[in-house]
Amino acid sequence: MTQVTFRSCHSRAPCLRPEIVSKQRKKADAMNTQRETDRPAPHRVLILGAGYAGMAAAIQLAARVRRQQDVLVTLVNAQDRFTERLRLHMAATGQQLGELSIPELLDGTGAEFVRGWVTAVDADARTVRIDDDRVLHYDTLVYGLGSVADTSALPGVEEYAYTLNGPQEAEAVAHRLAGLGSGTVVVGGSGLTGVESAAEIAERHPELDVVLLGRDEPGALMNPKAGAYVRSALDRLGVRVRSGCDVVKVLPDSVELAGGESIAAGLVLWTSGTRVSPLAAAAGLEVDERGRVVTDTTLRSTSHPEVYAVGDAAAVRQGYGVMHGTCQGGMPTGVHAAVSVLRTLRGKRPKPFRFGYYHTPVSLGRKDAVVQFTRPDDSPRRMYLTGRMAARYKETVTASPWPTYGRMKKMPASGAFWPRGGRFTRIRAAR
Prior knowledge:
By secondary structure, this protein is α/β, with parallel strands linked by helices. It has two domains: 43-146 and 277-355 and 400-424, FAD/NAD(P)-binding domain; 157-273, FAD/NAD(P)-binding domain (3-Layer(bba) Sandwich). It is 31% helix and 23% strand. Helix 2 runs parallel beside helix 10 and helix 2 runs parallel beside helix 12. It is globular and about 70 Å long. Mean pLDDT is 91; it is low at 1-16.
């Protein structure tokens, strides 16, 4: 297009008449509009769930395409506050969680945030329904809706037990505990969440009797010395541990065990087992027996290549087996999925995802903890930490995700540091 120089009419150079200027402006506007029209629509990447994995995917992807107009990133979550799931056992005793705003963190990245509940996914139409009255379209979907406590496994759990699925549920537990005054609290499940919850309640509410029920001993997956420390710490806090027992029913004021024994309870906190959203299965995605999306080595759905799955929602296979849901494994899946999406869009082949575990930190109240260091397959090493040093270590781990997102926002590559696991994670080709 010819460049037009506008000069004052007092110059010796001749002026353009107003009608000519108007015509040329209209022509330029028309050409700009044509360029806008000819530009292909941006590739729409929709991320469902702002847990540890989904948040990592959103920040990583948005930071890498910030100045590009060919990719549109949208994050959907039921709340606009990020939930520190690693602190929910603390919130259950009345301790305040941080006000971590997702929209504020995304500010400046160009990513859009949509608050609402995902009620349906149509994998064939490539649409997601939000709150039953809004439909979002996508070209690529990152599915990270996570998991919640499995309250459907036993009669009465759904109706009478409390859970730690989110801040509201944790606040409900805190309110109930504050009103008990005395009596017994039963924690169902002797895994990490059950141990941390029982210890926290016993420390903050010494007036209550806390009973921890489970099939396995607390700390059973640690090395013998670390596991023994967990059990001795619970004993010091006054927690009564009942191992090798099965809960068969939860009643309004008690739990019933196999064999007919009943334990009176003013509150039952259920931490045994998890389940994922049924939306993936309902959408026709290939899922495993637990409803998790089955992925290939790049975290892409094996049935729908335009869908990636991250965190607890994904069945991610490594050389040692399928990963289990943790923050330490969830965030790397989010980062890797984001990079895989971008590599695919740029015509490059995504790289295989590999992750090796390295620790299992367990808090035992505010001043005590155990940190079990592990091999990449999550089996325990001989090395472990206990006491105040372990408590500081655990707090550092718990507090690290949010600052990590902030660093990734400025330097996306900073999110790519995690142990790949060497020979433990390498998947050997079938002969």
